[in-house]
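User: Could you check the structure of this?
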Amino acid sequence: MNDYNERLKYSEDVASVFKIVRDVVENKFNRRRDDLVLEFDPLLPLPVKAIHKTDSNIIVLNKSIIGVVSSLANTKLELNSYIFWVLLHEYLHSLGIRGESDVASLARDIIEEFLGVKQPAALIAHKGLSYFGLRGRIFSAFLTISYLLRRKQIHRIVVMIASKG
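Assistant: Sure, the predicted structure tokens are below.
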């Protein structure tokens, strides 16, 4: 368990986190896919964190959400734990496990078994983005604005605060 945590703590990029995901799944199921490619897309529909298209070799990560999480994570381990959770979920899909609730449950179990129940990835697997204080409408509004700005559908945001006078 500690080796995976140490590797996750010191991973410098998404590719190294993905290698840990592959190693954990291979350890658990004796199965591995080395043909997968990671891509980033800031324009994925919200609130999609990542996607693996059935029968493809591509996992696409939502760059906008990773950016938000990166700015809110207190440590590199928290950011890497989020990325691990998302990649593990999609990697399990790539192995042929289709049901969303089945994959979510299996991902939680794997994280708890290999990283521990108190590790940030386990907490994120249970709480989702609310682990980072992102909840409901505020987060949805933020992501929608971010999405529209990136698509250049809106050019600036004006925030008005009304005061009683």
